[in-house]
Specification:
The protein has 176 residues and is mostly helical. It has 11 helices and 3 strands. A 3-stranded antiparallel beta sheet has the order 1-2-3. It is elongated. It starts with a helix and ends in an 8-residue tail after the last helix.
């Protein structure tokens, strides 16, 4: 209840700084429950909570821009260069954002997407887990330098293209 109330206050811009978070918490939680003895400790707890809420709110806002795998209409795949229905591929998989945010990477960088076709997108995630993608294959250039991805991309480039209508009707078949 307290976290929900504070989250709502942050979202509604009723709480915009550490002092606001601290004041909001004092209305709901006595210092004894927090298990802190000094005012500085209360401020530290509030600062951490405020930072966490700010990061979660920003991540949620940015994530609304593109969901991984979201259909984006037709265009040229950045890997196989075919005119195809495109999906958004997070170069730093969303599952790894919390880890890399703690290491100092910005949310904007973490949400960088590349526009690729569904076959290329599926192959990437079938070939490597999210940890390896984040650590070693976080740019289009690095993806294309990888032998397993490059072999698939060269093969895919020779395949016929699929329209958005065919993909929507599930008539698109990709076999290898």
């Amino acid at each position: 209840m307290i976290v929900e109330s504070l989250s709502e206050a942050v979202l509604n811009d009723e709480v915009t700084d550490v002092e606001g978070v601290e004041a909001h918490l004092k209305d709901y939680v006595p210092e004894e429950i927090l298990g802190v003895a000094e005012e500085g400790d209360v401020e530290d707890v509030c600062l951490r909570l405020g930072n966490k809420l700010n990061l979660e709110v920003r991540a949620e806002e940015v994530a609304r821009i593109y969901e991984d795998g979201e259909e984006l209409g037709e265009g040229e795949c950045e890997l196989c260069e075919r005119e195809m229905p495109l999906t958004a591929h997070h170069l730093m998989p969303r599952e790894t954002h919390r880890k890399y945010r703690k290491k100092g990477l910005s949310q904007e960088f973490l949400n960088t997407c590349t526009m690729i076709c569904r076959p290329c997108h599926s192959h990437i995630h079938k070939t490597y887990d999210n940890e390896r993608l984040a650590a070693e294959l976080s740019t289009v250039e690095k993806l294309l330098d990888d032998d397993a991805i490059l072999r698939f991309v060269k093969w895919a480039a020779k395949q016929r293209t699929t329209s958005t209508e065919m993909a929507a009707n599930n008539r698109a078949k990709y076999r290898r």
